[in-house]
Each structure stands twice: as C-alpha cells, then as structure tokens.
Amino acid sequence: MKSYKQSRESVAGFPALAIYGRERHATGNKLKERFERMRVDNIFNLKDVLDAADAVLVGAGAGLSASAGCVYSGERFENRFGDFIEKYGFKDMYSASFFDFPKQEEFWAFWSRMTYYERYCPVPKPRVFEDLLHLIEKKDYFVLTTNGDHIFQRMGFDKKRLFYTQGDFGLWQCKKPCHQETYDNETEVLEMFEQQRNMEIPSELIPKCPKCGGFMYPNLRGGSWFVQDEGWYQAAAAYEAFVGKHKNSKIVYLDLGTGCNTLGIIKLPFMQMTRYNKKAVYVAINTNPIYAPPWLEKQSIVIKDDIGNALQKMVELES
Fold first, then answer.
1. How many C-beta atoms lie closer than 10 Å to residue 221's C-beta?
2. How far apart are CA 240 and CA 187, in angstroms?
3. Which domain holds residue 80?
4. String of DSSP letters for 273-292
5. What pLDDT, in 10s, does the model give residues 168-185?
C-alpha cells in the first residue's frame, strides 16, 4: 500500500494536495465513504502543507469560536438568557444583539450579560486554540479575525500578530461618536452583571461618554458610528505589512469558520491572494458547506469538519 505522501502529486512546491472534486459521481454510502476518506486525506495534506510553509495567515470567523464551545444559540443561549427569550422571543444571541431595547437599563443588562460570558468567562474548549497555536507558533504567523471575543489574546497568541477588525466586546465607545477613543469595560461589566435584577441594571450604572455625556455603546462594528481607535489602526498596519511581506512567499491562507456575512474581509481576499501567488495554498475548515473555486483547485484544501477535531487530528499526527 502506498503512503499518503507517495499517493499524491506535489503542488506549488508544497507536499501534494488532494483534489476535492474527484469523487463527485459516487452516490449513497459509497459517496459518504469517499468523502470521509477525502476528509482524512486532506487533514494529512494540511499537516504536510503547514510543516512546509514559511508563513501562515489565519482568518478566523464565528465558526472557530463555536468549535471552542462559544455558540450563540441552543442550550447555552437558553440557559443564560431565558428571561429575555421569554419576554422578547429571541432565537439566538447574534440576532438579539440588534434588538432596539426600550430602556438603557435593559439594554445594558443584556449586553453586560453577553459581554461577561463571551469576553470574560473561560473558553469552554480551550484545546481548539491551544492546538492551533501549537501548529503555527514556530512559523511567521498573523491572525485576522472578525470575532469580538478576544480569545486569541486570552489563549496566549502574540498581541502584535492579531487584528480584531470588527471590534472587541471588552471595549466601549461613545455612541455618537463624539471622539475616536475606546475604553476598557471589564470592571463596569462585572458590576452590571452582578447587580442586574429583572433584566435591568441600576440606573446609576448606565455608562456615559466622558467627553460629551451621551450614551456609550459596545465597540463592535455595526455602522458608520464604529470607532477605529489608535490600536485598531496599528493592528491594521501590522496586517497590511504582513500581507505585503509574504505576497510571494510559501504561505498558507488558513480560513477557519468564516461564513457569508463578512466575505470581503477574509474569504475572498484570501482566495485572491492565493490566486496571484503560485506558492500559496488556500485552506478552509468549517462544519458548514465550504468550497474553493475551480481556479484554485490545485492550490486549495477544503475540510468539512469540526475545526477543533481537524486541528486535534493534525497535532496527533506528531505523536
């Protein structure tokens, strides 16, 4: 029997990539068996590719945090927001975050509770991020993420290699905004969380802008009012510098759990950068339907699997 490495052709200087579309004519159980074999093959492929890469650019979406147990719906949401669900019929945290609450006391009861659980509580399944860091920490890496939960920094990733392009649960800003600064909120959020009763916080805990006295708001992108402070621009510059440095490198663009809400931030740019660099490989891992376009067939690996499971399998290949 040939080994995995013997049975694949090399591509773009990397160890070989499995072609994900070859089994498209199979049906039924045979199709499932072949796709399972392809999934396993691609995990082997990805480990080989990561080992051979000079650099890794991680693009992280909500699917990565969900793999680590930070899910916005189901039992986790119902156990923590049952009172809001009963009153307003909320289906999940994401859609609930857009609700126009009638009172600031209620708005901050919801948001402090959400921020407490998503930003300041321990990650339910930390191994997902531990395994990812283990696989890339010896490479020149950078992380671009649309998640506002700050898990990367909390789990030991280098702060200078992170760009939270959509904001951070742990920051507040003026709602207007009257100025381009953000403010840490941990102390205030913990107090709101502890003192809220009947889905409201005490009125005296409602945060006010230190400049204009108006209302504050979570620093999460949702419109033109989103504040991009000095730290945001520094991270953006670091990201652009990394992209420029490695535009012709043997680099892996690792797309973890991104969806359609922010296609123009991670998925499409990653595909385009791969297209114009024949040494690059685009990789996507997600439980949701994933694909790589035909023009990237020989420069892509797609794995339909739980992200944590795929990362764990790669780590286990080292033992």
1. 17
2. 33
3. 71-122+168-220
4. HHHT-TT-EEEEEESS----
5. 999 999 999 999 999 999
